[in-house]
Amino acid sequence: MPEQLIVTGGLLIDPAVRIEAVRDVLIEDGKISAVGTGLSRKSALKGVPAIDAKGKWVIPGLVDMHVHLREPGREGDETIETGTKAAARGGVTTVLAMANTEPVTDTASQLAFLRAKARTDAAITVLFAGAVTVGQKGERLTEFAKLRAAGAAALSDDGRPVMNAGLLRRALEYADDLGLLVIDHCEDLTLSNGACVHEGATALRKGLKGAPGAAETVQVLRDIALAQLTGARLHIAHVSTSASVEAIRTAKKNGVRISAEAAPHHFALIDKDMPGYDADWKMNPPLRSGEDRQALLEGLADGTLDAIATDHAPHGCASKALGMDLAPFGVIGLETSLAVALTDLFHKKVLTRRKLVERMSMGPAALLGLKHKGTLAPGADADLVVVDPDAAWTPAAPFFSKSRNTPFAGRRLKGRALTTLSAGRVVHAL
Ligand SMILES: [Zn+2]
């Protein structure tokens, strides 16, 4: 007998197959086996364990293509085990883990080690990016073909930009031949120059060193030119400025093979919101202006921004206590991304529920070439979330993540994941 589970009576939102209607979903052996009405009443399915989703949404599990799990090297801040538990709590069933581990994930043997670790420790699906350059030093390319053979799902030096344009050009050419997506963290280090916040009135008032939006946008423009030159695909991580959104929109219109993501903190918060000098509000790129935030909302609505990704970046309390100048960049986000998107995008009518699922599940699954994820059509992986879009709650420590560096702590949010299934197994239930 196959292992069966049925999710009954929920509002199924599955843009990949254009369904937005009440449906039952039957799961068998970790896959979706049927979607329909009245499945639970069929005599052949009597006695099958059921999850009642009446009055709730049922959506494909979220795919977060930008996550830092800190393993190996900084297991005190996060591990594959704790990071994926945090993801499951937030309705995220697939993550792409970035390569800025210690040591950097830049060889096939390291990828093999990490994938084996994920098989035993992870609550959900973990994909791994390989580094673009050896040690993320920006000097020599890694061995892309070997990384791909070892299971790299994408290539990225995230945490750092690839400053050398000639090197990135070659990376794009090789990666495209292998069908690998290059994800670039766009930051001209000579412009950002170690600044901890956005350059503007808030930085001035607080006496903090600011990085101009142009530090990001000049590299976005360069990357667009390189994507055009090579004809290769390129994905821009954590877009934060209005000028970047505009550049990507124009490039897409011109047929450049570019895609982009935005993070919840950038579309929900601006620099002025930061209380005092709280390093839990320090991330890279920094929170920008209200005008930049508005451009992100428009970019998410019209599809210029293909995906919502958290840039989940755990850091322990001790390092964040060093203050704005010295604390490391980054905030956690896996446990709050769905709730922030529901609060700031769905409830504020920026995105319909269908578009929200597109940006958080279907879109990133397509960018990563994941044919069995981002949808709940029969045959797909049974990665599924039951969502209460109206549940009011307030994120607060302790989190499932080992770290607690989030600007959303104490913020009233509306909506959350009630139940998360990964490959048909319940990995989170409220
Ligand atoms: Zn980054």
What order do the helices and strands come in, and which of them pair?
Elements lengths: L3 E11 L4 E10 L2 E6 L13 E3 L4 E4 L1 E6 L12 H10 L2 E6 L10 H14 L3 E6 L13 H6 L4 E3 L8 H14 L3 E3 L4 H4 L4 E2 L2 H6 L3 E2 L2 H17 L3 E3 L5 H12 L4 E5 L1 H5 L21 H13 L4 E2 L8 H4 L16 H10 L6 H15 L16 E10 L19 E10 L2 E5 L1
Parallel strand pairs: 1-4, 1-5, 6-7, 7-8, 8-9, 9-10, 10-13, 11-12, 13-14, 14-15
Antiparallel strand pairs: 1-2, 2-3, 5-16, 16-17, 17-18
This protein binds zinc ion.
Notable features of this structure?
single chain, 430 residues, alpha/beta, Urease, subunit C, domain 1, TIM Barrel, 2 domains, eight-stranded mixed beta sheet, eight-stranded parallel beta sheet, 13 helices, 30% helix, globular, binds zinc ion
Count of the separate structural domains: 2
Backbone structural class: alpha/beta
Basic shape? globular
CATH topology of the largest domain: TIM Barrel
Looking at CATH, the homologous superfamily of the largest domain is: Metal-dependent hydrolases
Number of helices: 13
| Ends apart, CA distance between termini | 29 Å
Name the ligand types. zinc ion
Please outline the major beta sheet: 8 strands, mixed
Rg value: 21 Å
Q: Helix fraction?
A: 25-40%
Number of strands: 18
> What value does the average pLDDT take?
97
- By CATH reckoning, the class of the largest domain would read Alpha Beta
At CATH's second level, what is the architecture of the largest domain?
A: Alpha-Beta Barrel
